[in-house]
Amino acid sequence: MAMTKQDKAQMIEELQGVLASSKIIYLADIEGLNAVNSTELRRACYKNNVSLRVVKNTLLKKAMERSEDKNFEELYGSLKGNTAIMTAEVGNAPAKVIETFRRKAEKPLLKGAWIEDNSYVGDDKLAQLVALKSREELIADIVALLQSPIQTLISQLGNKENESEAQVDVVETPAAEQE
Predict the structure, then answer these.
(1) How far apart are CA 42 and CA 145, in angstroms?
(2) CATH number of 5-132
(3) Is the predicted pLDDT of residue 154 greater than 80, yes or no?
């Protein structure tokens, strides 16, 4: 069934909303996935809090062009063939879904990604995107780095305290035996 102009305008508006509200946007090629694999991919996305939606390239490009605060120009070349848009809250979540799924199938292929004002184009960027750390992971790493010297100091002070108690016991023991 062909889309009317009104349907297309509505779809462009919906896509603009998705683009405006998302900081993490992946474009993937899922062409050739059979129904079973397609369902499995959608389930994997759902489990990992990734939204997956198949879109028309021309409508997505129009929505991207109309985006006021984001520049998607580097991704325009990726809008060929079958395109699915994947959005998430965690920067590497869609990449991990793609990587995990590709252990079983050849697709989806990464066409491109836009993550907080940075564009990544091509399937060769998948490993780089999987390695990206989320904001929470970075904060945890920083906290661990900051805690490490403090924990070492506390441990050393604890050892010194134990050594001092042991020396006091040694000094007190002979005096007690003499009585």
Answers:
(1) 37
(2) 3.30.70.1730
(3) no
pLDDT band at 25 (very low <50, low <70, confident <90, very high): very high
| CB-based burial label for 56 (10 Å; 0-12, 13-18, 19+) | middle
Provide the pairing of β-strand 24-29 with 109-115.
antiparallel
CA dist., res. 47 & res. 49, Å (int): 6
The answer for residues whose C-beta is within 8 angstroms of residue 127's C-beta and 6 or more apart is 99
Does the structure show a pLDDT above 70 at 167? no
Class of residue 129 by CB neighbours under 10 A (exposed 0-12, middle 13-18, buried 19+): buried
Q: How confident is the model at residue 155 (pLDDT cuts 50, 70, 90)?
A: confident
**Facing residues of 119 across strands?**
114
Per-domain residue ranges of the chain:
5-132, 134-179
83 dihedral zone (left: phi>0; alpha: psi -120 to 50; beta): beta
The b/e string for 58-72 (b: 16+ C-beta within 10 A; e otherwise) is: ebbbbbbeeeeeeeb
